[in-house]
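Q: How would the structure tokens look for this protein?
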Amino acid sequence: MSALRYPVVLLKLSGEALKGQEEGAFSSGVMEFLAEQIREVHEMGVRLGIVVGGGNFFRGGKGQRAWLVREVADSIGMMATMMNGLALQALLRHHRVPCALFSALSMPGVIPGFDGLAMRDALDEGKVIVFAGGTGHPYVSTDTAAAFRAQQIGASLLLKATQVDGVYSADPKVDPSAKRMARISYLDVLSRDLRVMDATSISFCREYHLPVLVCDVSQRGVLARAVRGEDVGTLIEGSVGLENER
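A: Here is the predicted structure in token form.
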């Protein structure tokens, strides 16, 4: 077995990733596929945390209406992540993957609130940690929550799961000459407003030298390849120029 380049990983799963192209909150096929990939990297010995979004139910700031203030919209979005967290925990347990669920917003008797010591104990016991509730505060995306949680578990990589295989020089749906970039710097992401993740999360990762890998989670085996450091997706780190376009 190949050595792990990234032994501690924070996986950011969007709510949309849980539903795929199907109607409804979840796709059984997608959920089973994700569980198999998560179990694979867990069995490789990766210490794994997962931050789950809630966009399959409700999208915080983007779900605003004239009568719905941002703080309330974001609270609804955080509650959506709690539903996804419960579903993901149940799925992983069904696949015999030991896991623990924590939420920035607690629901006594259902989901415990975030506890750093308990979380680290669970990691030391070999459990996959599922984080829900975002940061518990409005105006903050789950991308930023993922960056925070990655730092808290001592992650060597933040893996942003998307439905595309990386960051491109242009929109590949519009420009057929667009090329996937193997590597790009934090500053390039910010200066070009690439919107891979929000600016706050990218700036946080830059400050703490946390590499971000953007990859297509629908590709079989991509998580295992990613933790081994193979050429998948786009790696965001350091002061890399744009000469690495493929």
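The chain has eight helices and ten strands.

Residues 51 and 131 are 5 Å apart (CA to CA).

Upvote if useful.
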